[in-house]
Write a structure and sequence with these properties.
The chain has a single domain, classed as 2-Layer Sandwich (TATA-Binding Protein), CATH 3.30.310. Helix content is 22%, strand content 36%. Strands 1, 2, 3, 4, 5, 6, 7, 8 and 9 form a nine-stranded mixed β-sheet that branches.
Length: 169
């Protein structure tokens, strides 16, 4: 009988998911850029960027310089065993877990959602652009066909932020 309880306890503890810290180096958030362009020009460029990429805007307040996207589709990825991104164009890198197989292509490109929070403000040398990825979620399909969105553990890769900056500089 005591062996039954020992086996049961060991079985339950081995079923828990353990997440591993990221090995690679990723930008600290918020990511802040500066541009010599005027506030008005940067504002217009970012609005155009969102429109061209099909990103819906949930909050827009020109007075405070705030633009917040709706929850939008993004591509996430994981790191390989060397701490390198498995998909270099991903916007988000998820922490790997003991439930993931490092050799599986399933974890190379992961469909996710997130919001983009951008704050634009005038500074002496031009304009400051503060870009944050927020509310990153990964949708998991359950056995019964239902979907469950869960908060994603990880960080921005800086790819999206660089796309924005390269479009406005």
């Amino acid at each position: 009988m005591k062996y039954f309880f020992l086996i049961a306890i060991l079985s339950m503890s081995s079923c828990s998911v353990k997440y591993y810290p990221l090995k690679g180096h990723y930008p600290e958030t918020p990511i802040i850029y500066t541009s010599e362009k005027s506030f008005d020009k940067v504002w217009d460029n970012i609005i155009d960027f969102f429109a061209q990429k099909g990103i819906s805007i949930a909050v827009i307040d020109r007075t405070s310089g705030l633009i917040v996207s709706s929850q939008s589709g993004i591509i996430g990825t994981t790191e390989n065993s060397k701490g390198q991104l498995r998909y270099k164009e991903a916007f988000f890198v998820l922490q790997s877990s003991n439930a993931m197989n490092d050799n599986s292509d399933f974890y190379k490109k992961i469909n996710m959602t997130a919001k983009w929070n951008i704050r634009i403000k005038k500074i002496d040398s031009g304009t400051s652009i503060n870009i944050n990825l927020t509310d990153a979620e990964r949708t998991i399909l359950l056995g019964n066909g239902a979907k469950q969105a869960t908060a994603a553990l990880g960080r921005t890769t800086g790819v999206f932020e660089n796309l924005v900056y390269n479009d406005i500089k």
